[in-house]
């Protein structure tokens, strides 16, 4: 290691003696490096950072767009769901109404028919009792007339007298 | 025993292969490694550009960039908000990835032998060159002060920076302001440069044992490279938020 350090120092010393430049003093290389870097800077600014930033912004925009689409789809889904429920409810109530109405109609028809039948029954009862009354009225005088002879005949049989008057 | 004069035994501290371009002395090895790092970064960027998607399954490259952008964006947002200086986010993403790749390419064990027989790393980490870290740190320094001037005004901003929270701390505030780019650059430089020296030291070990500390160190170096890239980006955000905050933002 000592040898290495000495030889390094020797190189420095020999350089200084022979008039070669100190390597810590910049020379014309500076300008060439600067030019090369400026070219690299220009290309990276134009062809790398700009497109990459555009890509990053675009990606953020796409993510936001997707989130918005998701929210909108969920909203539409909820709206369709509530509309479906509403339709279902109204259909149910309509069906209930129809059922009630038909039940009422059925009852009305049954009542009407029952009334007609009742009327017919009353009419027939009335006619029957009328005809019975008429028959009674027809028979009563005849029977009344025959009561006397029948009772005489009956009395004569009891007392044993033939029907001679 | 290792011979001191042998080229394999010497540690090449801060040695660079140089050339003169446009009248300027440049370290070609640093430029070369930086170009490789930039190429890797740009390829990753163009792969993303070709396959980026917001609705499909993101590719691995997209996940890589997205993870870094999201992380840095949340850091910027929590410390200063994105609207104050819109170029901060691309700047810190660029800094992080560029420094990360630059630090990680040196993990590849690629070596070549130079003309004088020395074995050298093919891809030296660019951050072990002071020019690399200074270029980035000074760019950040200028940018966050520009953002500060734009936020607090041409007169209000220097006063705010100098005065800080209480007036009598003004000298300390000035020192702190000067220390920011120096610490920002030298922190990265020191960490990566130390890694290079460590690899050089480990290379002096006998071959039959060298692989073990080398593997351990290179693994740790990956971690150091990641942490330093992250710290550089994080401090950049912090400096921007300090420069753009206003008095009423204090609590």
Give a written overview of the molecule.
The complex is a heterodimer of chains A (165) and B (251). By secondary structure, chain A is mostly helical. Chain A is built from two helices and no strands. The longest helix of chain A has 131 residues, at 29-159. In chain B, 65% of the residues lie in helices and 6% in strands. Chain B has seven helices and four strands; from the N terminus they run ββαααββαααα. In chain B, a hairpin with a 2-residue loop joins strand 1 (18-21) and strand 2. The relative contact order of chain B is 0.14.
Brief account:
Chain A is built from two helices and no strands. By secondary structure, chain A is mostly helical.
What is the approximate shape of chain B? globular
Oligomeric assembly: heterodimer
Biggest chain pair interface: A-B, 45 and 61 residues
Major sheet of chain B, described briefly? Answer: 2 strands, antiparallel
Low-confidence runs of chain B: 1-8
- Shape descriptor of chain A reads rod-shaped
Report the total helices of chain B. Answer: 7
Give unreliable regions of chain A as ranges: 1-19
Q: What is the number of strand segments of chain A?
A: 0
Order of helices and strands of chain B: EEHHHEEHHHH
Structural class of chain A: mainly alpha
**Which structural class is indicated by helix and strand composition of chain B?**
mainly alpha
| Main sheet overview of chain A | none
Q: Keywords for this structure?
A:
heterodimer, A: 165 residues, mainly alpha, 2 helices, 89% helix, 0% strand, disordered N terminus, B: 251 residues, two-stranded antiparallel ribbon, 7 helices
């Amino acid at each position: 290691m000592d040898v290495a350090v000495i030889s390094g120092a020797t190189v420095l010393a020999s350089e200084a003696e022979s008039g070669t430049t100190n390597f810590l003093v910049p020379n014309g290389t500076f300008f060439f490096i600067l030019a090369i870097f400026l070219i690299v800077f220009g290309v990276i600014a134009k062809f790398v950072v700009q497109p990459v930033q555009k890509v990053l912004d675009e990606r953020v925009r796409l993510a936001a767009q997707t989130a918005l689409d998701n929210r909108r789809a969920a909203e539409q889904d909820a709206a369709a769901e509530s509309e479906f429920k509403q339709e279902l409810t109204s259909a149910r109530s309509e069906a209930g109404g129809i059922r009630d109405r038909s039940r009422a109609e059925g009852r009305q028809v049954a009542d009407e028919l029952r009334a007609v039948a009742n009327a017919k029954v009353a009419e027939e009862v009335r006619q029957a009792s009328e005809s019975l009354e008429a028959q009674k009225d027809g028979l009563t005088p005849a029977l009344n007339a025959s009561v006397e002879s029948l009772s005489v005949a009956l009395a004569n049989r009891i007392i044993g007298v033939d029907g001679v008057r | 025993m290792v011979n001191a004069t042998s080229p394999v035994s010497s540690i090449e501290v801060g040695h660079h292969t140089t050339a003169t371009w446009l009248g300027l002395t440049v370290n070609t090895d640093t430029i070369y490694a930086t170009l490789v790092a930039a190429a890797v970064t740009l390829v990753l960027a163009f792969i993303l550009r070709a396959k980026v998607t917001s609705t499909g399954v993101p590719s691995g490259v997209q996940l890589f960039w997205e993870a870094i952008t999201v992380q840095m964006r949340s850091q910027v947002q929590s410390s200063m908000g994105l609207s104050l200086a819109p170029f901060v986010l691309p700047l810190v993403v660029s800094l992080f990835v560029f420094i990360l790749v630059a630090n990680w390419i040196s993990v590849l064990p690629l070596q070549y032998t130079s003309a004088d027989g020395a074995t050298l790393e093919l891809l030296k980490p660019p951050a072990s060159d002071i020019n690399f870290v200074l270029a980035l740190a000074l760019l950040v320094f200028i940018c966050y002060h520009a953002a500060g001037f734009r936020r607090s005004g041409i007169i209000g901003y220097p006063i705010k920076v100098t005065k800080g929270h209480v007036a009598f701390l003004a000298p300390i505030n000035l020192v702190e302001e000067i220390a920011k780019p120096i610490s920002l650059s030298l922190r990265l430089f020191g960490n990566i440069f130390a890694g290079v020296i460590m690899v050089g030291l480990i290379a002096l070990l006998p071959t039959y044992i060298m692989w073990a500390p080398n593997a351990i160190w290179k693994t740790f170096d990956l971690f150091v490279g990641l942490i330093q890239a992250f710290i550089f980006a994080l401090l950049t955000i912090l400096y921007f938020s300090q420069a753009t905050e206003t008095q009423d933002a204090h609590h």
